[in-house]
Write a structure and sequence with these properties.
The complex is a heterodimer.
Chain A (H helix, E strand, L loop, with lengths): L2 H25 L5 E2 L4 E2 L8 H5 L2 H12 L4 H15 L8 E4 L2 E4 L6 H18 L5 E7 L15 H11 L4 E3 L23 H10 L11 E8 L14 E7 L1 H5 L1 E4 L4 E3 L23 E5 L8 E6 L2 H5 L9 E5 L19 E7 H4 L7
Helix pairs in contact in A: 5-6
Chain B lengths: L5 H17 L5 H16 L4 H20 L5 H34 L14 H17 L8 H9 L12 H9 L5 H34 L5 H32 L17 H7 L2 H12 L8 H20 L3 H26 L3 H19 L4 H11 L10 H20 L3 H9 L3 H27 L12
Classes of the chains: A alpha/beta, B mainly alpha.
C-alpha cells in the first residue's frame, strides 16, 4: 500500500466508522434494562433550559450515550478481556475470576465499621432483649475468604476479635469452617441453599434446635441464574442454578410480609422473572417478615436479624420453630420494631455477612 | 466536553467533520466557531461569556494598538488589554488563594468567595495575551474580523487544555488553509493515538495513584511505585491531550506546534523543559523572561528573571503553594545547572544524567500532586522510609503485580523506541507497505478498545482541566 492510498484509507475508515456508529446509535431502539448489569439504563433526558444551564441535562446525556451505546455488553466484555489478559491486571474494580468463579475482593477490613455494627447490635439488645432471650450471633464469610491465592483479603480474625470483644454476652456461632468456596454461586455473592447442610448442623446444634429438625429436604431445581457479579466482570463462566430445599413443612408455611401486607410462600416463584433471581428465597430484600409454621410441635419462636444470606438459610430452620421473624435493619429503623415484634422469651440470632459488617453504614 | 467521551467521539466529532467538509470554503471558519462555542458551552454553560468577553477585549484593544501603532497610545491600549485579561484570570483563579493567605498572615477572617474557575481560562487567556502583545510588537498583523479572532481563540481542539497555540502559528491558516488526505489521516491517527494514551494508560495509572493515596498500608516500595506512576500518568494524560489537539487541528487543516518531545529521555532539567509543555515554556520565555532582560543584564538580574519565570510557571498551574514550590524547585535546579552543575553533569554517563532528571522530576510531581505541603513532605519522606513503613508488604506486591504491565508499557511508551523502530522499518519499501496496511487496522482496533473503556464509564478525568 502506497503512502497516498494509506492516507485515503485511514481518512475513509475513520470518517465512516464515526458516522456509521453515530447513525446506528441514533436510530437503534433504546433499551430500558441491562440484564447483565441488572440495572435500569439511562434514557434520553428531558430537555429544559434550566437543566441545560445548570449542567444536569448534559450529565444525563453523557450517561445516556454510554448506557445506550450499540453492543455495550460486548464492548464491556472486550474491556475486561484487555484488562485481565493484555495488561495482566489482577482484578477489575475489585472483582476477579478464580477457577471459573467470580469473586469480589473485599479489602481492607474496616475496623470502625465492624465496631459500628456491634454498637448497633448492642443497642437492639439493650432496647428489646433481656434474660428471657437466648441470644446468638454468627458471621457469614464472603467468598474471598476461601480463595487460596495472592489476592488481598480482609483480616477476618480481626473482625471476629472485634465482634467477640464487643458482643460479650452474646454467644458466637463460628461457621467459617462449615463452608468451602464451591458452596457459593459462580456468579453471585451468596451461598447456595443446597450446600448449607454443615452450617445448618452447626447453628442448630449450638442453638439447641437440632432435635426438632426431623424431616429431610428434597432438592428442586427452579431456574438458571446470572448473579450480581456476572454484570460486574464480563467473563464467560458456568451458569448458576437456583435450587430450593423443600419438604412438607416449608411448603405449608405461610410467610407474612409487613411491607406488602401480603402472605406468600417461602419460595416466592413470582420472582422467577425478576432481575435478581435469588429473590426467590423469601421474596428478597424486605424489612420485616414472619414465617408461620402451623404444623410445629413446639411453641418456640425465633427472631433473626439478618441480611440477604439469611433468606436462603432461615427456611431450613422452619421445622424447629412455630414462628420465625426475620428483620433486616438495613430497611427498617430498630425503634419501629416495638410496634410489630414481641421479643420476650424468644431465641434471637444476629447473622450478618462479612460484607455487611465491613460496610455497616447500611445498618440502621 | 471531554475528547475521551462517547459524546465527543461518536456524536460531536462526526457531525462537525460532516458539516465542515460539506460547506463551502467561505463558511468553514463559521462552522468551526459555532462548533467550538457549542463544545465550550457543553462543558461550561455558565461562563462562556467570560471567554467571549476576553476575546472581545483582545479584539478591540488590538485594533486600537494597530490604529495608534505610531503613537504612545499603543502602549496604553496594550496595558489595558493585559490588565483586563490577566485581571479576569486573577479574579477567577486566585481570589480565594489571596484571601486565604491574607487570612493566615494577618489572622483575619475574610470569607472565601468560592468563585468557580471557568474551564480553560488559563489557556485562552495566554493565547489572547500572545495575540495582543504580538500585534503590539508588530510580529503579526491585526485581525480585523472578530469572527476569525474568535475562531482562533475558541478553536475547540486546543481550547480547554492547550497547547497554547500562538496567533502567529495559525495566522495564515485562519484565512487560508489547505485540506488533504495526508493531513486528515495524520490528524486522525494522532487523535486515536492520543486517545489511547489517555484512556488505556493515563487513566489506569491514575487508578493506581488513587489507590496509593487512599491506602492505609503503604510501604517504601509503594511510595516509589506512586512516584513513578504519577510521573507517567501526568505525562500520558497531558501529552495525550496535546496529541488529540494537534490531531484534531490537522484534520481541519491547522498545523499546531508540538507540545511534548519525549521529556523523560532528557539528560538535564534544562533539556527537560525544552521537551515538556513546550508551548508554556516558550510563552514564559518570550513574554516574561526575555522582556525582563533574559541573561543579558548580569547574574543578579538573570537570577531574578529565572525565579520570576518559575514562580509564575508554578502559579499558573494552580492557586496553591505546592504549585509555587513546584515551580520554584525547577527555578533552583535550572539555576544550579546554569551556574555550575550543568558542566559537571555532562561528564557523567548518560544513564546517570537521565536518572538525575527522572528523580527530580518525580519529586517535583509528588509535590505537584499533593493537596498541601504537609502531604508532599510525607510522600517524599516515604520514598526513603522516613515514615516508618515496611520496605514492602503484601498490599504493595499485589498492586505492583496488577499494574506491572501498564507501567512497563508506559515506560516504553514514554521513550521514542517505538517511533525509531517504525521509522527504521519504513526505510525499506516492503516494510513501509506493510506498515501502511497495518496503520488503518491499528486505528480501528485502538478506537474499538478505547470505546470499550468509555462505555464502561471508567475513571476518566483530565488532570490539566483544572489549570
Amino acid at each position: 500500500m502506497t503512502d497516498r492510498i494509506k492516507s485515503i484509507t485511514v481518512t475513509m475508515v475513520f470518517i465512516l466508522m464515526l458516522i456509521i456508529i453515530l447513525l446506528v446509535n441514533l436510530f437503534k431502539k433504546d433499551i430500558e434494562i441491562s440484564v447483565t448489569e441488572r440495572r435500569i439504563l439511562a434514557m434520553f433526558p428531558k430537555f429544559s433550559i434550566s437543566k441545560l444551564i445548570d449542567g444536569s441535562f448534559i450529565d444525563q446525556f453523557e450517561n445516556y450515550t454510554m448506557d445506550q451505546f450499540i453492543n455495550r455488553d460486548n464492548f464491556r466484555s472486550l474491556k475486561t478481556f484487555i484488562e485481565l489478559n493484555i495488561f495482566g491486571k489482577q482484578d477489575v474494580k475489585g472483582v476477579y475470576e478464580y477457577n471459573g468463579m467470580i469473586i469480589k475482593q473485599e479489602y481492607p477490613l474496616n475496623e470502625q465499621s465492624v465496631l459500628n455494627a456491634t454498637q448497633k447490635i448492642n443497642k437492639i439488645k439493650l432496647q428489646y432483649l433481656n434474660d428471657s432471650n437466648k441470644i446468638y450471633y454468627t458471621i457469614v464469610p464472603d467468598k474471598n475468604y476461601y480463595v487460596e491465592n495472592e489476592h488481598l483479603k480482609m483480616d477476618y480474625s480481626k473482625m471476629e476479635q472485634i465482634m467477640a470483644e464487643n458482643l460479650k454476652d452474646i454467644e458466637y456461632i463460628n461457621i467459617f469452617n462449615c463452608l468451602k468456596l464451591e458452596d457459593y454461586y459462580y456468579t453471585d455473592t451468596h451461598w447456595k441453599q443446597e450446600c448449607l447442610k454443615n452450617v445448618l448442623e452447626k447453628i442448630a446444634t449450638q442453638m439447641n434446635f437440632r432435635d426438632r429438625l426431623q424431616t429431610g429436604f428434597n432438592l428442586k431445581e427452579i431456574t438458571k441464574f446470572n448473579g450480581v457479579y456476572s454484570g460486574q466482570l464480563q467473563v464467560k463462566t458456568k451458569q448458576d442454578t437456583i435450587n430450593v430445599l423443600t419438604n412438607n413443612i416449608t411448603e405449608n408455611c405461610k410467610v407474612y410480609n409487613y411491607e406488602t401486607n401480603k402472605y406468600t410462600q417461602i419460595y416466592d416463584l413470582e420472582k422467577i422473572d425478576s432481575n435478581d433471581k435469588y429473590d426467590i428465597y423469601l421474596s428478597g430484600a424486605t424489612p420485616l417478615l414472619t414465617i408461620e409454621n402451623n404444623q410445629a410441635n413446639t411453641d418456640k419462636e425465633l427472631i433473626v436479624f439478618r441480611d440477604s444470606f439469611g433468606s436462603s438459610l432461615v427456611p431450613l430452620f422452619t421445622e424447629a420453630y412455630k414462628k420465625i421473624t426475620l428483620i433486616d435493619t438495613r430497611y427498617i429503623i430498630p425503634d419501629l420494631l416495638k410496634n410489630y415484634v414481641e421479643f420476650e422469651g424468644k431465641d434471637v440470632l444476629f447473622m450478618y455477612s462479612t460484607l455487611v459488617l465491613n460496610s455497616s453504614e447500611t445498618l440502621r | 466536553m471531554l475528547f475521551s467521551s462517547i459524546s465527543f467521539i461518536y456524536y460531536f466529532l462526526p457531525l462537525v467533520i460532516l458539516a465542515y467538509f460539506i460547506v463551502p470554503k467561505k463558511i468553514k471558519n463559521f462552522v468551526l466557531l459555532i462548533a467550538s462555542l457549542l463544545f465550550y458551552f457543553y462543558g461550561e454553560p455558565k461562563y462562556i461569556w467570560v471567554m467571549l468577553a476576553t476575546i472581545f477585549v483582545a479584539y478591540i484593544t488590538a485594533l486600537l494598538i494597530d490604529k495608534y501603532k505610531d503613537t504612545k497610545m499603543k502602549k496604553i491600549f496594550l496595558i489595558i488589554s493585559v490588565t483586563v485579561t490577566l485581571g479576569s484570570l486573577c479574579i477567577f483563579k486566585y481570589t480565594d488563594f489571596i484571601i486565604s493567605n491574607v487570612n493566615t498572615l494577618f489572622n483575619a477572617k475574610i470569607p472565601l468567595l468560592r468563585i468557580v474557575m471557568p474551564i480553560g481560562i488559563s489557556f485562552y487567556t495566554f493565547q489572547v495575551l500572545s495575540y495582543t502583545i504580538d500585534v503590539y510588537k508588530g510580529k503579526v498583523k491585526v485581525q480585523k474580523s472578530f469572527f476569525k479572532l474568535a475562531t482562533y481563540v475558541a478553536l475547540f481542539p486546543q481550547l480547554i487544555a492547550g497547547p497554547i497555540v500562538r496567533y502567529e502559528t495559525i495566522e495564515k491558516e485562519i484565512d487560508n488553509r489547505k485540506h488533504s488526505f495526508e493531513d486528515f489521516s495524520y490528524g486522525a491517527t494522532r487523535f486515536v493515538i492520543g486517545l489511547s494514551k489517555k484512556v488505556l494508560l493515563a487513566n489506569a495509572l491514575g487508578e493506581l495513584c488513587t489507590t496509593f493515596l487512599g491506602a492505609n498500608e503503604k510501604s517504601v516500595v509503594f511510595y516509589w511505585i506512586y512516584g513513578i506512576a504519577y510521573s507517567l500518568q501526568i505525562y500520558f494524560d497531558f501529552s495525550a491531550y496535546s496529541d488529540m489537539a494537534i490531531g484534531l487541528g490537522r484534520i481541519f487543516g491547522f498545523h499546531f506546534l508540538e507540545n511534548f518531545n519525549y521529556p523523560y529521555i532528557s539528560k538535564s532539567i534544562t533539556e527537560f523543559w525544552r521537551r515538556w509543555h513546550i508551548s508554556l515554556g516558550s510563552f514564559f520565555r518570550d513574554y516574561v523572561y526575555i522582556p525582563l532582560g533574559g541573561n543579558r543584564e548580569g547574574k543578579i538580574k538573570l537570577l531574578r528573571n529565572i525565579f520570576i519565570v518559575w514562580f509564575l510557571t508554578g502559579l499558573w498551574h494552580g492557586a496553591s503553594w505546592n504549585f509555587i514550590v513546584w515551580g520554584l524547585m525547577f527555578g533552583v535546579l535550572l539555576t544550579i545547572e546554569k551556574f555550575f552543575f550543568g558542566k559537571i553533569l555532562e561528564k557523567f554517563p548518560k544513564f546517570i544524567q537521565r536518572i538525575y532528571v527522572l528523580f527530580f522530576v518525580m519529586i517535583s510531581f509528588i509535590i505537584f500532586n499533593s493537596e498541601d505541603m504537609g502531604q508532599a513532605i510525607q510522600n517524599i519522606a516515604g520514598l526513603f522510609g522516613a515514615n516508618g513503613e515496611q520496605i514492602i508488604n503484601k498490599y504493595t506486591l499485589y498492586y505492583l503485580k496488577s499494574y506491572l504491565g501498564i507501567i512497563i508499557i508506559s515506560i516504553i511508551g514514554a521513550t521514542p523506541i517505538a517511533k525509531i523502530i517504525i521509522e527504521k522499518l519504513k526505510e525499506k519499501d516492503i516494510t513501509r507497505r506493510i506498515i501502511n496496511i497495518l496503520e488503518p487496522i491499528t486505528i480501528v482496533v485502538l478506537l474499538l478498545v478505547v470505546t470499550s473503556y468509555l462505555v464502561d464509564n471508567s475513571y476518566n478525568p483530565f488532570l490539566y482541566f483544572r489549570f
